[in-house]
Amino acid sequence: MKSRIGNIVRKTKETEVSISVNLDGSGKINAKTGLPFLDHLVTSFAKHAMFDLKLNASSKDGIDHHLVEDTAIALGNAIDDSLGNRTGITRFGYASVPMDEALADASLDLVKRQYHRIELSITRDQIEEISKEDLEHFFRSLAQSLNICVHISVKYGENDHHKIEAAIKALAVAMRSAVTLDKRQKGPPSTKGVM
């Protein structure tokens, strides 16, 4: 079996991000972005997806928005790269994940048709020193760069930190299921014959 490893280096005038992801890993993670809550989200995602992940991201301009955005883009690009032509995968994934009083659902299709609908239900302006709009942008940028169809919805909750954690973990568990290789699946999992 060909290894399913994606490597991306993203260098802009604003940030520098290098990432390696192994879809068939065991959840070994080393994530350093300089933003503790962003590290926590990326680590939670990789851990619950069971991906091995090495991520180093740094800001050149000191603007958190650019760092959050480029980290999400590079992560999505690396996973997309590791999926290759997506032959033999399960393709679909769904998860419902509680985090204390919060509950989030994620449904995804690894077809190469980008669509996302993300409802995080955040009420505070800032969570752990990252703005609400940057957290929402993280999820959108990740979804767009993954090149998949994904729906994420926080059903309810009172604590915004818990809502975000439930959402990222639901996405991770759904992704873990969808990227799983199905021995019965020959070729792309599509009636079209391509993804």
What would you say this structure looks like, in words?
This protein has 195 residues and is an alpha+beta fold. The protein has one domain (5-179): Imidazole glycerol phosphate dehydratase, domain 1 (Ribosomal Protein S5, domain 2, 2-Layer Sandwich). It has 4 helices and 10 strands. The protein has helices at 36-49, 64-83, 132-146, 160-179, and strands at residues 5-11, 15-22, 29-32, 52-59, 92-99, 102-109, 115-119, 126-127, 130-131, 149-156. The strands form 3 sheets. It has a 4-stranded mixed β-sheet with strand order 1-2-4-3, covered by helices on one side. A hairpin with a 3-residue loop joins strand 1 and strand 2. Helix 1 (36-49) packs parallel to helix 4 (160-179) and helix 2 runs parallel beside helix 3 (132-146). The longest helix has 20 residues, at 64-83. 43% of the residues are buried. The model has no long low-confidence stretch (mean pLDDT 95).
Can you tag this structure with a few keywords?
195 residues, alpha+beta, Ribosomal Protein S5, domain 2, 4-stranded mixed sheet, 4 helices, 10 strands, 35% helix
